[in-house]
Specification:
- With about 210 residues, the protein is of the alpha/beta class.
- It has helices spanning about 45-50, 65-70, 75-80, 90-95, 165-175, 195, 200-205, and strands at about 5-15, 20-30, 35-40, 55-60, 85, 105, 110-115, 120-125, 135, 140-145, 150, 155, 185, 190-195.
Length: about 210
């Protein structure tokens, strides 16, 4: 059976720089009836485990280490035996949420994660955070962008460890170069396409963050 994409929305808190906000997060499951990977284990490990059913979880892949994207990752790893993968540049953020538990393995630009006969290629897309990554699956016609690119513009860069010129460069060089029909599956909110977002690049730069 070919790989498919499932979406689970979980709710909880995002905390950084002394502030806390209620947020809904997209948890993405890529796989078939036998095996899967989870992209961003947010808030509710039990709900994610239930959505997996009896499938073997190959990895918990973190697009970045803001707490709302990794707060349930260690528990999900303990429930399933799957490793938690994170780009090393985000370990400083990871430690704010999980000071006593390190990620199980690194993510690197160009790394390939195979699941259910398809491949997710890691694209290092810093800016929202230093180690932010996107995951491109050409066979599925999609890219998982975490909080780097949303419907309507780039992710927030007004908090610690973020940088607006860097996120714009990541989007321009790594994401908007993908085929325009590529579906952009985001960390929060609705999906979009590369083609829908590309015309707005100059406006984002002019507006800044």
């Amino acid at each position: 059976m070919a790989a498919r994409i499932e979406q689970l929305v979980t709710s909880g808190e995002f905390s950084l720089d002394g502030g806390t906000w209620q947020v809904d997060n997209n948890v993405w499951i890529v796989g078939d009836d036998t095996e899967a990977v989870v992209i961003d284990a947010a808030h509710d490990a039990a709900a994610i485990k239930e959505a997996l059913g009896g499938r073997r979880l190959l990895a918990v892949v973190s697009t970045h280490a803001h707490n709302d994207h990794v707060d349930a990752a260690p528990e999900l790893a303990d429930l399933t035996g799957a490793p938690v993968l994170l780009h090393p540049a985000d370990e400083v953020l990871w430690r704010q949420t999980h000071p006593d538990r390190a990620p199980d393995g690194p993510l690197a630009d160009g790394q390939e994660i195979a699941v259910a006969g398809t491949v997710l290629t890691v694209l290092h897309t810093p800016g929202h955070s230093p180690g932010a990554v996107s995951l491109y699956a050409p066979e599925l016609g999609t890219v998982f962008t975490g909080d780097t690119l949303f419907a309507g513009g780039p992710g927030a860069t007004g908090r610690s460890f973020s940088d607006f010129p860097t996120i714009v460069a990541s989007i321009r060089e790594r994401l908007l170069t993908l085929p325009p029909e590529t579906v952009v599956r985001t960390g929060h909110g609705d999906s979009t396409t590369v083609g829908a977002e590309a015309p707005h690049l100059a406006e984002w730069i002019a507006r800044g963050h």
